[in-house]
């Protein structure tokens, strides 16, 4: 699955930018609060407006503190998948997953490049997606951190060995070159911001990424 990240779009033309990626699988929306990450993007009212015009289901990536307080709201406005950061959860991440699912969305758990998967292996089965960050969260356009690939492979092994219905997602620095490495490591969902919105023709960029991921 290809999930273009709206972070690299023109925020003054959101409806048009959403329409340009209509043949994507999910539309990735990066919510940042200037506390969990040193950047501020958009919040619930704007995401709700995007959801109303998007032909593609929303994949909301919450890079915020206190995700337990906000995550169910994104499910309520119709997001398909709502992902919270493991590092931001103060309580049991499984409680957040339960609340997101109760509000009608898939529940995702995200880990930063330096966060070991071992700490979260036991809670994985209570989530629907696992987002492995391949850059430090906060900004688009950064270089893919190849050192994270063993963690993607480990995630694939855990999911397969445990017969879990968890999609492994990679986010950060994914382009026509790096997507092959991520696909080979076993990722299912590929987030790409600058590689899609930085292209002259986002629809063609999505098709090219999809072809490379399945090559
Ligand atoms: C970074 C965001 C990513 C970002 C990816 O914190 O989570 O989704 O938009 O952008 P690229 O694909 O340009 O690295
Ligand atoms: Zn993201």
UniProtKB/TrEMBL annotation:
Substrate binds at residues 5, 61, 138-141, 171-173, 193-194. Coiled coil: none annotated. GO terms for biological process: pentose catabolic process; pentose-phosphate shunt. Its cofactor is a divalent metal cation; Co(2+); Mn(2+); Zn(2+). Pfam families: Ribul_P_3_epim (PF00834). InterPro entries: Aldolase_TIM, Ribul_P_3_epim, Ribul_P_3_epim-like, RibuloseP-bd_barrel. GO terms for cellular component: cytoplasm. NCBIfam families: PRK05581.1-4, rpe. PROSITE patterns: RIBUL_P_3_EPIMER_1, RIBUL_P_3_EPIMER_2. This is Ribulose-phosphate 3-epimerase. The keyword Zinc applies. GO terms for molecular function: D-ribulose-phosphate 3-epimerase activity; metal ion binding. HAMAP family: RPE. A divalent metal cation binds at residues 28, 30, 61, 171. The active site is at 30 (proton acceptor), 171 (proton donor). Its EC number is 5.1.3.1. Pathway: Carbohydrate degradation. Keywords: Carbohydrate metabolism, Cobalt, Isomerase, Manganese, Metal-binding, Zinc. The gene is rpe. Binds 1 divalent metal cation per subunit.
